[in-house]
């Protein structure tokens, strides 16, 4: 299969810091049910011997002052990035065919909720400065929620970025 750099160049191009908004909608009514700002640190960690690990940390900030951090260590194998942690089990793969090299697809299930799964589509702008993500949430085979995420690229230098201040976006 090739390295993560060869097989998943779109994901590789997302390395760095992204800020934006997560907005959750009820699939039946279209009603906005939650929203919060976000900062994501997307990292590629070189472990030597040709092995590269993907690691993403999400920081969420609500207007009422609440915040939450979620950590998603992963590994690359057989053309995909794989997660298996306390919250999710799933994978990410570059879309094929994608004539423009803009799209990544993810699928995962929630731990402790085996009847809930979702698919995520990530579309990057050609200059890799903006991206839009869509989550389709299913329970027992029925879509019950959608999440729309709009993000802007902040910096490639995730190592020295201060994550304690909420994003301005």
What would a concise description of this structure say?
The chain contains two helices and eleven strands; from the N terminus they run H-H-E-E-E-E-E-E-E-E-E-E-E. By secondary structure, it is mostly beta strands.
What does this structure look like?
The chain has 169 residues and is mainly beta. The chain contains two helices and eleven strands, in the order ααβββββββββββ. It has an eleven-stranded antiparallel β-sheet. A hairpin with a 5-residue loop joins β1 and β2. The longest helix has 5 residues. The radius of gyration is 16 Å and the shape is globular. The protein starts with a helix and ends in a 14-residue tail after the last strand.
Let me know the largest β-sheet: 11 strands, antiparallel
* Global structural class: mainly beta
* Total of helices: 2
pLDDT averaged residue by residue: 93
User: Taking Cα atoms only, what radius of gyration do you get, to the nearest Å?
Assistant: 16 Å
User: What strand order characterises the main sheet?
Assistant: 4-3-2-1-11-10-9-8-7-6-5
Which parts are unreliable, with pLDDT below 50 for 5 consecutive residues or more?
Answer: none
**Extended strand count:** 11
| Approximate shape | globular
The percent range for strand residues is over 45%
Termini Cα gap: 38 Å
Helix content: under 10%
Question: What topology does this entry show?
Answer:
Layout (H helix, E strand, L loop, with lengths): L3 H4 L1 H5 L2 E11 L5 E17 L2 E11 L5 E7 L1 E3 L2 E5 L3 E7 L8 E8 L2 E12 L5 E10 L2 E14 L14
Antiparallel strand pairs: 1-2, 1-11, 2-3, 3-4, 5-6, 6-7, 7-8, 8-9, 9-10, 10-11
């Amino acid at each position: 299969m090739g390295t993560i750099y060869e097989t998943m160049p779109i994901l590789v191009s997302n390395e760095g810091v992204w800020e934006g908004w997560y907005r959750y909608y009820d699939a039946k009514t279209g009603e906005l049910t939650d929203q919060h700002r976000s900062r994501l640190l997307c990292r590629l960690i070189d472990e030597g011997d040709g092995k590269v690990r993907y690691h993403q940390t999400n920081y969420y900030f609500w207007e009422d002052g609440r915040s939450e951090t979620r950590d998603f260590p992963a590994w690359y194998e057989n053309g995909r990035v794989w997660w298996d942690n306390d919250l999710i089990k799933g994978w990410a793969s570059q879309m094929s065919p994608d004539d423009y090299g803009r799209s990544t697809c993810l699928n995962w299930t929630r731990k402790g909720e085996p009847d809930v799964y979702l698919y995520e589509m990530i579309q990057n702008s050609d200059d890799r400065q903006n991206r839009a993500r869509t989550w389709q949430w299913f329970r027992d085979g029925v879509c019950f929620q959608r999440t729309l995420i709009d993000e802007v690229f902040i910096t490639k230098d995730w190592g020295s970025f201060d994550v304690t201040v909420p994003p301005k976006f």
